[in-house]
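REQUEST FORM: STRUCTURE PREDICTION
Request ID: SP-0412
Submitted by: Lab K.M.
Chain count: 1
Length (residues): 280
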Amino acid sequence: MQIIKNPKELQDTILNLKKQGKKVGFVPTMGYLHDGHVSLIRCAKSQNDIVVVSIFVNPLQFGKNEDLDRYPRDFERDKSICEKEGVDYLFYPDYKDMYPEGFQTYVEVVELSKGLCGDYRPGHFKGVATVVLKLLNIVCPDNAYFGKKDYQQLKVIERMVKDLNLPINIVGCPIVRETDGLAMSSRNNYLSKEERQSATYIYKGLLEGKKLFQSGEKDPKRIKEAVVETIKKAPLLKEIQYVEIVDKDSLKPKEVVEPGDVIAVAVFIGNTRLIDNMEL
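STATUS: Completed
RESULT:
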């Protein structure tokens, strides 16, 4: 596995490989890799000749009082995981490589960035879209892999790629969960043992909503109430930020729930913000 820090060096390397007819898969991450990331890498390995993983904690997608400074980082551990999984290139740029002095160009996917997390993290998806477009331009992949846990992010990126005519296939991969249902996330590392136990009520709430829908309920208000009532049982719940049922493509709230719609939630367990979703 080759570690590359310079964007131009990686870009030249990949373009040369593509001239040789190699198909390139790309997994962008902020590091502190877990089994969810590993599942993306394995999917990329199965569908491409060359796999690139990036590790870059992107300051543009963090708000003023968010966790940029304490976001978990362990490059040696991440490098070891990538080597074990057969990654070909690990892109590990510095801030100045991604945002050199004078940087002033941003990307915004206007409508899909509204609602859900967009209402609570202003500027977040502008930061996401900007860094992902930069990474896609640097890596020039045929396929890029994103987890469905960050569902709104996936939809924003799909729209950006379509709107800007990028010749890249975006692959959304299933949420990977712990045995008790908690969606894998680097931020789970913040949770104490007791908070970790409380966090399982998020998945229980989503299951309760899906069960009600499968029994014939189509009123989003009633389904959301069932989700909320279950999550409220979590002993260390600090706040339910939102529970919404949205169209899987437009992310607009539904008035009548249909198969394929998505329940999306954001909650604080202690001081840790966790998101999850489930397709109905």
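NOTES: The chain has a mean pLDDT of 97.
Reviewed by: T.R.
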